[in-house]
Amino acid sequence: MEEDEQKITPEQFAQIREIVEVFNSSNFDYLTLELAGMKLTVGTGAAPVPNPGGTAGSGLGLRPDPKTGEKPAAAVERNTAGTPDLSQTGSESAPAEAPEADDGSVAVVAPTMGTFYSRPDPSSPPFAKVGTSVDADETVGLIEIMKVFNNVNAGISGIVTEVCVADGEAVEFGQVIMRIRP
Amino acid sequence: MKLVRALIANRGEIAVRIVRACQAIGIETVIATSEADRDSLAARIADRTFCVGPANALESYLNPERMVGAAVITECDCLHPGYGFLSESPALAKMCAENDIVFVGPSPDHILQMGNKILARKIAEECGVPTLPGSEPVLDKEEAVGVARKIGLPVMIKAASGGGGRGMQIVDDINALAAEIEVAASEAGAAFGDSTLYLEKYISNARHIEVQVLGDGHGNIVHLGERDCSLQRRHQKMVEEAPAPGLSVDLRNRMCDAAVTLARTVNYKSAGTVEFIFDMDSEAFYFLEMNTRIQVEHPVTEMITGEDLVEEQFRIAAGDKLRFSQAEISFRGHAIECRINAESPEAEFLPSPGEITDWQPPIAPYIRLDSHCFPNYKVPVNYDSMLAKLVVYGRDRHQAIQRMKHALSQFAIDGIETTVDFQYRLISSSNFINGQMNTRFVDEIVSQSEKGTSGLPIPL
């Protein structure tokens, strides 16, 4: 708990105790609460490190209620560095089935699951970025699974209009990696 | 060690069962799915879904690299394999260990030792557990004929790496044996990648009785009683119950002791099942094989003991010692499980995949339903046909049968063919009610229906 003990009033202490009790009975690793003049972090194990740059995946987005489709109002922030968030569910993360976008671009989907690499090695430029012209049989990325690297081919000749996955990000089978306009 | 996040490398009802066990003990869940199961119930209730491959199981549920890869990527610290698929793959257990993922199951060595039926038989013989009269691996047809003459016909040809009712053939004619050996060897080679065969005496009036064991790897082994799984169709279990009906206290104790002895000999860790064949005529029992996984029929044991076997698997995997001694395990009442499959009994149990338009499971006291189905769920064509395990509990076997009959009669499923009505007929038959069944019982009932001697829907 990161808290300046001297400033705690008995009333605040009781509230904190209640928060810790709720946390203890939950499945969460960490809870960070920021109120006026107070920041409270509770957790188990090593202290959480904020996500660098606050990129996507910083919130444990609670799943919508399957019946109403409504998301619960409150979401607890969950910043465990490097730990993927658990916000994706089957229905939410279902990949687009390589549809043609409005601009006529075609999705390149992950041929296998694994870790996506946009460049052949960390010091090289990416295989392809927005605006790059690619041939159908050109490698546009790599997917590594258990130290085995698989090429991702463009599959279609054209101009890259969007890169949807960052270098080093985990991809599921069938996930859209980038879009190419023929 | 505290386990934080589990990858569930399975699908269907057991994936749901494992997610719920994790939720109960505060372990986060990542469900590894194929493309066909992205919107499954397990995916809906797990903390995260990770699609590992296409519907074809070879590239998803049967692919150890992808399963362990998914566990690494999603930063799971443990992996539960469920049953079937990779649950008894030493390669998966080994790959988990190499990647610092705790395998929720036995060690790769246990899976190897017990998964190979010839090795397992040898271990059983060495620790004094009775085995069926049979052979070492048979090298050729001539040797097989010699063995068959020695142990007496009928014999069963078995594949050393077989399982789940596959790779077995009964032979009662010595002249047909040579040809059957040849066919069985090529089938076993194609199905299991191992054409090694052995012979066993075939018991015609047999019951299939198995003992549930738990070991913690610290030398503590307990049994949780036996289950009777005699109601099988083509070696696939249909109805299971605990305890086994009509078994004397002495026989029950001897079987459970034998199972514990076997598990203790290898210092077994995790949940396992020691299967026996029980000869009704001679009242002798013989070790068949050991299953190094959680089994489909584990709920009947849970119902009469009050324990949660999947939860115990996680505790053992975390390195904990068993929470209870043998004396602290109590047995009460009787439980029956009926497997509800998407199959058409009228069409030789042909699988009946498709959309479940109506799904109304029975609700009443003492019913447990383990299922991944819901209204408008589409049963995929790619996997096995089990929809649900309907389990009931009763003070005694009679009450359990009454409750099961009622539960089955209230179970409404529409859109696909199911085995609900067939199960009702099975458990209503006088032979079942009187506990007079053996492993051929279901096949006999099926053939009676086909011949019209006991046509549908007349109770047997």
Write a concise synopsis of the structure shown.
In chain A, 10% of the residues lie in helices and 27% in strands. Chain A is built from two helices and ten strands.
Topology:
The complex is a heterodimer of chains A (182) and B (460).
Chain A: H1 10-24, E1 30-35, E2 38-43, H2 90-93, E3 106-109, E4 114-117, E5 133-134, E6 139-145, E7 148-153, E8 158-163, E9 170-171, E10 176-181
Antiparallel strand pairs in A: 1-2, 3-10, 4-6, 4-9, 5-8, 6-7, 8-10
Chain B: E1 5-8, H1 12-25, E2 28-34, H2 41-45, E3 48-53, H3 64-73, E4 78-80, H4 90-98, E5 102-103, H5 108-115, H6 117-126, H7 141-151, E6 155-163, E7 166-171, H8 174-192, E8 197-201, E9 206-216, E10 221-233, E11 236-242, H9 249-265, E12 269-279, E13 284-291, H10 298-305, H11 309-317, E14 334-341, E15 343-344, E16 350-351, E17 354-355, E18 358-360, E19 367-371, E20 378-379, E21 386-394, H12 397-409, E22 412-414, H13 420-428, H14 430-433, H15 441-451
Parallel strand pairs in B: 1-2, 1-4, 2-3, 4-5
Antiparallel strand pairs in B: 6-7, 6-8, 9-10, 9-12, 10-11, 11-14, 12-13, 14-21, 15-16, 17-20, 18-22, 19-21
